[in-house]
Amino acid sequence: MLPIISPHGHTQAAWFAQNRPFPDPAQLLITPDHYITRMLYSQGVPLEDIGYAEANDPRKIWRIFATHYYLFRGTPTRLWLDFAFEELLGLETPLSQENSDFYFDAISTKLQTAEFLPRALYERFNLEVLATTDSPLDSLSDHKAIRDSGWKARVIPTFRPDPVVDPDFEKFAENVATLGQMTGEDTTLWAGYLNALRSSRQQFRELGCTATDHGHPTSRTASLSESASAALFQLVLRDASDAQTNELFRAQMLTEMARMSLDDGLVMQIHPGSSRNHNRQLYLRYGRDIGADIPTPTNYVDALRPLLDQFGNERKLTIILFTLDESTYSRELAPLVGHYPCLRLGPPWWFHDSPEGMRRFRQRVTETAGFYNTVGFNDDTRAFFSIPGRHDVARRMDCSFLAKLVVEHQLTEAEAAALAYDLAYGLVKKAYRL
Questions:
Q1: In a designed cystine with 352, which of 5, 179, 284, 348 is the match (CB 3.0 to 4.6 A)?
Q2: Tell me, what DSSP letter sits at residue 90?
Q3: Domain spans, the chain
Q4: Residue 362 burial (CB < 10 Å; 0-12/13-18/19+)?
Q5: What is the pLDDT of residues 88-114, one digit of tens each?
């Protein structure tokens, strides 16, 4: 079986730096997985009952999860969980309210064994590369510890600059000042701010980073002059800007990030189109990124034009586009990546990371973009145990699509076999420069 390349995800480097047992089944499989917590919350389960309270009872959380496991019927979450239970944990009887404690105890026992330590699981999962997602404000001490330990696995950081490029991010000005302190640059000035970002990117690269990631609300880009950019930076730094000005700054920063990627070779990922932290009450109570995110319509043709006018024809630049707006697959994204040398199309993401979402993706983009303007699969997950199952689903769905083309005489069997290899392994290594 081909190794797994996981070029974009949200697992924790600390797991592998410390290589300690995972604490319990609830903290491993339930609380960090937004696919699970959002479904339970939608059915009236309070977040406090599933890990968001100051004091949590892991067994109680697991019982609540088991009692509501039926909610996941027909969802990809059910596929990933069943795969983990049976293939990784050896639990063949379906999870239910009746066997909740049996599951909890069996998993707890396994987690205390050497075979279930993070590094052992990395090797068991047949991972070749695992990328985390990290802020420029992170010391990257865990990545340094992994490197210094002599362990030969590739756990690498990904540069996610949202806290220092998005004026709407909490404590933006304070974050920018911290970035200046970490890099020794004067981030009160536009030139110093850009130099600080370049310096931070270099620190990431020294630890194996090959990509950046940008979770902007939209895909808007801009092409401002240096003086206009400097003036705009002063506005957002003083918190003297409005929503429109903040959006313009984010747009300019996507263009600046592309310029830096052309210089340092980091692959750029743009993940727009999510109304993040949509549930305001939960955001104020628990903070950001607890699963209350909703897809929004997204424009790419007009929004990307300023960036593409400057860098669209650069063959040494790679920008991977993602979408939560499936209507853009055939209308905008497939034609864009089917023309501009710098663009590639990322796999079905987030709400569309599902069997039918993958099928729709291939159906809508292949005739225009082909296979080789896409980048394989990435799991984009915080749930470590779901990684093998997610890749298994993606590989099966791609092979199903290829088989259909063989039956219809659009591909030979040899071509389909070559494509199966590329979709599972070859394209992702090439796109992410791994």
A1: 348
A2: -
A3: 21-116, 160-431
A4: buried
A5: 999 999 999 999 999 999 999 999 999
For residue 295, what are the β-bridge partners?
274
For the record, the structure tokens of 267 come out as 């692959």
> What stretches of 278-351 show up as alpha helix (H) in DSSP?
280-286, 305-311, 328, 334-337
Helices (H), 276-412: 280-286, 305-311, 328, 334-337, 355-369, 387-407
Tell me if 353 sits within 8 A of 380, measured CB to CB.
yes
Best CATH choice for the domain 160-431 from the list 1.10.275.10, 3.65.10.10, 3.20.20.140, 1.20.1050.10: 3.20.20.140
Burial of 307 (0-12, 13-18, 19+ CB in 10 A): buried
Q: How confident is the model at residue 55 (pLDDT cuts 50, 70, 90)?
A: confident
Please, which residues have CB within 8 angstroms of residue 249's CB and are 6 or more apart in sequence?
165, 167, 232, 233, 235, 236, 241
Cβ-proximal residues to 236 (8 Å cutoff; 6+ apart), any chain: 167, 172, 245, 246, 249
Distance CA 146, CA 16 (A): 7
- Residue 289 pLDDT > 80, yes or no? no
Q: In this structure, which amino acid lies at residue 325? A: D
Length of the chain: 434
Fold category of 21-116 in CATH: uronate isomerase, domain 2, chain A (1.10.2020)
pTM of the predicted model, to two decimals?
A: 0.96
Average confidence (pLDDT) over 63-74: 97
Please check whether residue 127 is in contact with residue 390, taking contact to mean a CB–CB distance below 8 angstroms. no
**Tokens in use for 93?**
């009887």
Q: What is the pLDDT of residues 147-206, one digit of tens each?
A: 999 999 999 999 999 999 999 999 999 999 999 999 999 999 999 999 999 999 999 999
